[in-house]
Amino acid sequence: MYKEQLTVSSKDHHQLAVSVYEPKTTTKGHIHILHGMAEHHDRYVPFAEFLTNAGFLVSMHDHRGHGRTAKLNQATKGFFSEENGFDIVVEDTKIVTELVRQNRKLPPMILFGHSMGSFIARRYTELYSDELEKVIYCGTGAAGIEHYAGVNLAKCLSIIRGKTEESRIMNKLSFGNFNKAIKNPATNFDWLCTDAKEVEKYIADENCGFISTNQFYVDFLQGIITLSKKHEVCRIRKDLPILFISGSDDPVGSFTKGIWRVAKQLQKCGLHDVTVQLFDGMRHEILNESKKEQVFQTILEWLEKKECYYNKN
Description:
The chain is of the alpha/beta class. The protein has helices at 45-53, 67-72, 85-101, 116-128, 145-161, 168-178, 196-204, 214-227, 230-233, 257-268, 292-303; strands spanning 2-9, 15-22, 29-34, 56-61, 109-114, 132-138, 242-247, 274-279.
């Protein structure tokens, strides 16, 4: 495979760090990966290499306030923008992928988003579904009353303490609650994965596990609320194949309840090719679980399926 690292300039001249993995043989498709909160896209290299070896061109980038993008701009970690940050990172995705696809003859894009990236992918899907071939939402969740309460609290904190201030209160209310279902956790991040070595790698990574800012929570939570509205969901074209994948023990998806809520909302909006795949005993980062090869293979099999069906289990 060929690997390329490049920098893409956004509309407001923010520099976005991008990686592209291209197969040496004929390319069967283009997959763009959107990483999660308080991490970076280099953590997805094993998955990207697996997909590239299967014949897909894979691209991915670090969101604003994350990974190499934060370093390139000497920016505050966990901060999107002064305002409308969620909308901006969605548009960043469009800018990055259009540049990657420029001068390449590729089929329509397949979008993969994990955790925060899944919410960005969901909004992108609502706005630009006509441009997509398939979509995968990994480790996503449903909007609830906690998101409405959270965005109001984050707005107050942003005004009182500053937009770029680390939001320890919001961090505790979100990440702090995710470990509650785990008996005798060894770390604050055991909810991520059952593989202790992967959890330790996350903790040791200076670009992971940081505390995001007050304004980040305003932007992110408001984004979740907006994309979850029925009239926004119903904008998606009805024949778009969508896959939800999640661990059965993922607190972000409310231990599968949130996954089904979102999938059924899509069905009510008329989408007829929605599949839900749950992995028993796995937590939030199913791509880093000890049995990740099973997850990789399941994704590949779905990518290569042609028929449409809705999993009603």
